[in-house]
Design a protein that fits this description.
The complex is a heterodimer of chains A (325) and B (334). Chain A is an alpha/beta fold. Chain A contains eleven helices and twelve strands. The two termini of chain B are 25 Å apart. The chains are: A alpha/beta (325), B alpha/beta (334).
Chain lengths: 325, 334
């Protein structure tokens, strides 16, 4: 744990406001997609971010890269506050921080060849000579398990897994140090998902990358992450080392989430006790008062309805936001 | 497992073939599938996208348009062959005796009818209930599947409900005429884990309470492990392995099944570890050559695999594998 802190987010907030009503006296709801989130990622670490749909995990990923403007907070990359940078200065930092998206169908331009797609970041950041760039594209394609012969083809000629490889090659082009993987394997079948996960693990080792790995699939997150953050309705409810989180989840939401994950072993499944949460995830537009989780929580008490529990440091490297822990 | 399934098959599918006629040739979505479903049991069907599992489910109820679909084989239900009965007969069976729930309730339910009305429709059709009777019965059904404020919900429309609730409505509708068989086609794929657990528990409870046999189609081996008694693994339109759930997870024989199991991330493995993956991707179902469909991805492929289609071999009682060279000791992922 002595590695330097590569990414640090402090009090990050991203609110989405409705356009507003022309009627007087009508207040428009605000969706607190990311609400006061702080964490840090050390170099070479993989921070997994899990949560159910609509909890704000993708928004958080975009906020970190400043792909949209946040409402409050700071993000530091090696100590530089990205939110203070002017556009020109920010551009330089963009090459160190990249993203791989979920849907390999919509995140590649159908009218560009693979060569153009992978070369674009090199052109953008003005990296190297023409010849070098061509070699670099070949090198990148080989790195992600494609062949340089694929260069002239268009995205529609590839399968989902191969497209995701193209997306990864593009992200790697500018030689970044930090990559946000936003549900990068969620759209793929199990056997293809395993191929891409192996590739991501491989690249991480080879190129000493740091990931923020966003997924709704707990087992996938467990597989790649060294540390895991659990998100619920815009807030982080628990952060812990992967083994600690899975062997001894402290937040009732994490406990329920883990108990719901199907385990591919009938013997284990038979003996397992599931914590079935009642009801649905509340709307982030109108989250419950106090602890956002209290209406679905088994241990809910009076204090939970009144006050939001702060994310507290429980033991070394472990943070939980619950009154009862 | 609480209920011991009785060994009388209620549905027998024999050599079902569903081919689609395309300009490029025949697309063999389901290619000679045979299986049975016993009374009161939950059978799982797993496979990756495009392997033909949904087409198989749709074929059972003759929900596919013919042409382009072309069905052959036998589907025996209560002495009748579902593939040859008249259209009015099959309409009685659909919803009345065999019902189905789909992956996406948003597109499978009617947006302009109230929920109560949609559930009533099936009962009015199959059970000769009056509107008022059907209506009060649909409120009961909504209560049974755990929808709070059922009376009020019955008057609402689909867009007013969350994803999990919509799936509950589909289940209520499917169970309204006490069918003998429920076909659940990826019922929880679009849902979050906590909601998925709610829905699967509900299906299991209904199976226990009403004795409805369930064919659970999914791509998630974890779901199969938790909720089924028997499994069929489907690859490229064929069942490649079938056995009781416990057996298949402890002793998978087919290289594809073994590969699938190795490909799922599990607990207890080191971080930065690799998953045992299957190289390549599934073949196109158009113009499959006369060979084992898995041979190009199989590390144990032999001469025979390239020019013959393997038949089922019974490797141990009740355990069938479609492979020329099945072995149970190849699994190394655990």
């Amino acid at each position: 744990m002595s590695e330097e802190v590569l990414i640090k987010a402090v009090g990050l907030k991203k609110y989405f406001k409705d356009k507003g009503s022309y009627l007087p006296g009508v207040t428009t709801p605000v969706t607190k997609a990311v609400d006061d989130v702080s964490f840090e990622i050390r170099r070479g670490q993989v921070l997994g971010l899990v949560g159910e749909s609509g909890c704000g995990k993708s928004t958080l990923g975009l906020s970190i890269l400043r792909l949209h403007e946040s409402d409050a907070g700071q993000v530091f990359y090696k100590g530089t506050n990205l939110f203070d940078l002017k556009q020109n200065a920010l551009r330089e930092y963009r090459q160190y921080m990249q993203i791989v998206f979920q849907d390999p169908y919509s995140s590649l331009n159908p009218r560009m060849t693979v060569n153009q797609i992978v070369k674009e970041p090199l052109d953008n950041f003005n990296l190297g000579e023409k010849k070098w760039k061509a070699d670099r594209v070949d090198e990148l394609l080989e790195l992600v398990g494609l062949s340089p012969e694929h260069k002239k083809r268009y995205p529609h000629e590839f399968s989902g897994g191969q497209r995701q490889r193209i997306g990864i090659a593009r992200a790697l082009a500018s030689d970044p140090q930090f990559i946000v993987c936003d549900e990068s394997v969620s759209a793929l079948d199990v056997s293809i998902q395993a191929q891409i996960l192996n590739l991501l693990v491989d690249l991480k080792k080879q190129l000493a990358l740091t990931y923020l790995f966003i997924s709704h699939d707990l087992m996938v997150v467990y597989h790649v992450s060294s540390r895991i953050a659990v998100m619920y309705l815009g807030k982080l409810v628990e952060i812990a080392e992967r083994e600690d989180l899975f062997s001894k989840p402290l937040h009732p939401y994490t406990q329920a989430l883990l108990s719901c994950v199907p385990i591919p072993d009938p013997e284990v499944e038979e003996k397992r006790e599931r914590i079935i949460l009642s009801g649905d995830i509340p709307s982030p537009m109108n989250p419950p008062t106090g602890c956002h989780f209290h209406p679905r929580c088994r241990f809910s008490q009076e204090v939970c309805q009144r006050e939001y529990p702060e994310l507290r440091n429980i033991s070394e490297n472990r943070y939980v936001a619950c009154h009862l822990v | 497992m609480t209920v011991e399934p009785q060994a009388t098959p209620i549905l027998t599918v024999d050599n079902l073939k569903t081919y689609f006629s395309l300009r490029e040739g025949w697309l063999k979505a389901v290619d000679g599938v045979s299986f049975t479903i016993d009374q009161g049991e939950i059978v799982g069907m797993v496979g990756e996208s495009g392997c033909g599992k949904s087409v198989c489910a749709h074929s059972i109820l003759r929900l596919l348009k013919t042409p382009p679909a072309n069905l052959s084989g036998r589907i025996e239900f209560k002495g009748a062959d579902l593939l040859s009965v008249s259209n009015s007969e099959i309409r009685k069976i659909r919803g009345g005796h065999i019902s189905m729930i789909f992956q996406d309730p948003m597109i499978s339910l009617n947006p302009v009818l109230t929920i109560g009305r949609q559930i009533s429709e099936t009962m009015i059709l199959h059970q000769d209930l009056s509107r008022a009777e059907a209506r009060s019965r649909s409120v009961e059904l909504l209560e049974m599947v755990g929808i709070p404020g059922a009376e009020k919900r019955a008057r609402q429309y689909i867009f007013q409900l969350s994803g999990g609730m919509r799936q509950r409505v589909m289940i209520a509708m499917a169970l309204s005429c006490q069918p003998e068989i429920l076909i659940a086609d990826e019922p929880t794929t679009a849902l979050d884990v906590t909601i998925q657990a709610q829905i699967l528990e509900l299906i299991k409870e209904m199976n226990r309470k009403l004795g409805t046999a369930v064919l659970l189609i999914t791509h998630d081996l974890g779901v199969v492990a938790g909720y089924t008694q028997r499994v069929m693994v489907v690859y490229a339109g064929k069942i490649v392995e079938t056995a009781s759930t416990k057996t298949i997870f402890s002793r998978p024989w087919h290289p594809y099944t073994i590969g699938l199991m190795g490909a799922i991330p599990r607990m207890g493995k080191a971080q930065d570890g690799y998953l045992a993956n299957i190289e390549g991707s599934p073949p196109s179902l158009i113009g499959l050559e006369k060979a084992c469909a898995f041979h190009s991805r199989c590390q144990y492929a032999m001469e025979e695999c390239l020019n013959q289609v393997p038949e089922f071999v019974e490797t141990e009682p009740g355990h069938f594998v479609r492979c020329f060279n099945p072995r149970f000791d190849r699994r190394q992922d655990l």
